[in-house]
Amino acid sequence: MISITSAELDAVMAAFIWPLFRILALIASAPILGNPSVPVRVKVGLAILITILVAPTIEQPAPSADPFSGTGLLILVQQIIIGAAIGLVMRIVFVAVEMAGEIIGLQMGLAFAIFFDPQSSGQVALIGRFLGIIASLAFLAIDGHLLMIALIAQSFNALPIGADGISVLSFSLLAEWGGEIFKSGLQLALPVLTALLITNLALGILTRAAPQLNIFAVGFPITLSIGFLMLALSITFYTPILEKLIQNGFEFMSHLVNLPGIAIP
Asked: Where along the chain do its domains lie?
């Protein structure tokens, strides 16, 4: 008769449960994989499948602690924080791209062009959503989702399972990385903003030269046309910028879990 002690059962559960929650937290917080349109069952099933594949490759054994004890719950919380922090890094990259679209739309006069997005359960600007889709396609084209899975698999050896999680310095760096939303968002929107600024200056001079001209009837179609034209001309140059931004995201993710940088093929 096969007998299994409680200690052996706890070891088996710990070897599977703790990696599962780190991977599940990554999938829940990462872009594309964590999209609200993806069913919860698919996310959980994908996390379980990845855990089954990754768990045997973990070099350092899991701590021999009861998963339902205070120490076990502390380790569980640490795994959730690590997975969520890794996913949040790449989420910030996508938010920066969407912010660039919102800035462009605001300057073009499309501040009212907002619709309800069932995927994010909120109001989304039209141009921001458009650039977000382009960023998602570029992310999939360079196998970014597979690189994230590879990074989370390597993180178990670089940042072993235990009560010690991400350091306070890493949290400080993660907060500073949030500034990338404003910096990269403005850089992506700068070509269109420059053209719209010149257009608005020209319209201002035209208004001073011909006060009888109805600037509201003429200015809005002009700024809208110039904005779309510049967006169409500059969209081809967004791909290398997005690739560089995603590369910086992966380098920061690697630094967060004490791994060497992952190069995008």
From this structure: 6-256
Residue 101 in contact with residue 132, Cβ under 8 Å? yes
Residue-wise pLDDT for 184-232, tens only, equals 888 888 888 888 888 888 888 877 777 776 766 677 788 888 888 888 8
7: left (phi over 0), alpha (psi -120 to 50) or beta: alpha
Query: How far apart are alpha carbons 53 and 125 in whole angstroms?
Result: 40
Q: How many CB atoms lie within 10 A of CB 106?
A: 17
Question: Residue 166's closest CA among 78, 87, 88, 251?
Answer: 78
Rounded to an integer, what distance in angstroms lies between the CA atom of residue 12 and that of residue 88? 29
CA distance 262 to 178: 20
By CB neighbour count within 10 A (0-12 exposed, 13-18 middle, 19+ buried), where does 113 fall?
Answer: middle
Instruction: Tell me which residue of 236, 243, 92 sits closest to 178, measured CA to CA.
Output: 92
